[in-house]
Amino acid sequence: MDNIHRDAVVIGAGISGLVCAYRLISSGADVLLIESSDRVGGVIRSETIDDHLIERGPNSSQGTTEFLRLVSELEIDAELVEGDPKAPAFVYFDGKIRPVPNGPGTFLTTSALSLSGKVRLLAEPFIAARADGGEESIASFAERRIGKEAAERLVGSFVSGIYAGDPRRISVQAAFPRLAALEAEHGGLIRGAIAKGRQAKKSKTIAPGPTPKRSVSFRTGMSFLPETLARKIGESLLLECSGIRISTEGGSSRYIIEFGSAAGDQIVTCDQLILATPAWAAASLTKKIAPELATLLDEIEYPPLAILYVDYAENSLGESLKGFGFLVAPSEDTPVLGCVWNSSLFPGRAPKGRTLLTVFMGGARHPQAASYEDAELISIANTELQRALRANAPPRVIGITRHQRAIPQYNLGHRDRVGRIESILAAMPGLMLTGNYLHGVSTGDCIKEAERIAKCCHRGQ
Ligand SMILES: Cc1cc2nc3c(=O)[nH]c(=O)nc-3n(C[C@H](O)[C@H](O)[C@H](O)COP(=O)(O)OP(=O)(O)OC[C@H]3O[C@@H](n4cnc5c(N)ncnc54)[C@H](O)[C@@H]3O)c2cc1C
Question: How many structural domains compose the chain?
Fold first, then answer.
């Protein structure tokens, strides 16, 4: 049995763990990254089926400064593909898709809102800010500020799209802190947006780093990023590690990690231990060393999701697929949450003359749908796509993915829970958590947070 010491051990090789390990190694630390499965990337997983490039996890990422800086450092800019920044997104209700307003003027002309819905939305600056400062759901916040119709069609559908969540349970302060801050600091959303615009003009400072892009991926799919990171990390990455157990060295803040690997049973000690797994996996890893922490981590909800990959002949759709895709307003009686138009967004996603669409079903409001039989999922997708896209032929479903636990929910109470998690960690030097359940679910947020944690470790060395 090997018994070695490392400066840091990172557990979990999704994007969070890979970025954290890569940054630590780049800063000169001796790091081991251990992963239980036989591949890297976690939920990021691109595959080719019948000449269609499908994504079992994220279809794209926002090109945040951190994301683009990483891409540039890895020298993979040439592999990056960018979605048309002007590609419209649509919202689906009453049997039709309608373009989502994407600028101040388009709020007046959009068919996504009725006249009374537009008037109510434009009254937003005259709605008094909430004074008590308490936590509020995004549905209640949006209804109060912009009215029920805009809240439902523009905000509710968006919440389903990002979190597969329930807008009545997702906390505006935890999931959309910038929106909450606009009201708290400027009295409202429109006032806040105007003030921010003025501030930006006045200061005339250009943020350092690459200019953010709305939507990016790679020529061969999202997996290209984790696979590149894994190549850079090289032999410091161990896949298929089993039975990982964590303990502390009698009274010290040194951690002992025991696990099985292809090279046999291993014991590694380290001064910095970073858990980059989903919250429920971090809960089971920390049960022995920090039971209270484990209980808090276990409380974070991850609803299930089913994803269907659908191929149509281009000429069998009544709607031209020029855009990002559509999100479904929560008022619709369907478990479909939305549909990404992959072949319109990025090149090389479907063969010539064909399209690739990705349909999401289930989530917090329809958890049962994720366990429907394939035939039932296909029949629901068929009905909704026929309505929404006026398809005149049934789709060919080329694959289905089921995530039993997909995306962590930033529900009411989440901020408080994260605060308690962080105060427990503050009393356990050397133990750190990173991942999508803490400070943002998007890949861009995961990269930013993993880099922050790597910096904290580096300082602690
Ligand atoms: C279906 C879906 C669609 C999404 N769409 C988008 C999108 O369009 N845009 C966007 O920005 N974001 C999207 N996201 C969110 C984003 O992709 C994720 O939040 C992010 O990739 C999570 O990365 P992570 O490394 O924190 O976690 P994960 O990807 O979950 O990685 C955790 C890793 O830990 C490993 N692990 C688990 N338990 C153990 C253990 N005990 N020991 C060792 N290893 C362990 C896992 O095998 C995995 O490799 C989507 C997510 C999902 C699920």
Answer: 2
